[in-house]
Request: fold
Amino acid sequence: MRITPLDPAFVAAIRAGGPDANGQPPERATSPGAGTPCRNCLHDISEGDEMLILAARPFPAPQPYAETGPVFLHAEACTAWNAPGLPPVMAVSPDYLIKAYSADHRILYGTGAVVPSGALGAEIEERLEREDVAFVDIRSARNNCFLARAVAG
Ligand SMILES: [Zn+2]
Reply:
């Protein structure tokens, strides 16, 4: 399993002042600290650091299953998450919402669940073993915000 952050081209475009998934410029804010996972490096944005708040649609094109929602990014460049296993930021909440998708980016019904953080890795792996699953999205169980995507390999 590999956890992949937001599309790097989208992140770069946003930081360069480009529009978010709603066609609006990102909002700038000062991080309050914990609870602000950057969707590029997958670490919380430290208290006092500048951050961007924007709408992201982590799918290649609009379609009924292409959910759009709020995410945070470090305002300044950071290193995209690229390591084995789950990032530490996915162990801070008691649980997470996961859903598996087909190769055409549609929810595979029956795969969605709120799972305890201690079982998150195993629950994702179980879904990725299915032939019809292309990826598993990990979201906040309380706010439904997209955190990252899990793919096999
Ligand atoms: Zn970051």
Summary: DSSP finds two helices and eight strands in the chain. Residues 88-151 form one domain. The chain has two domains: 2-74, 88-151.
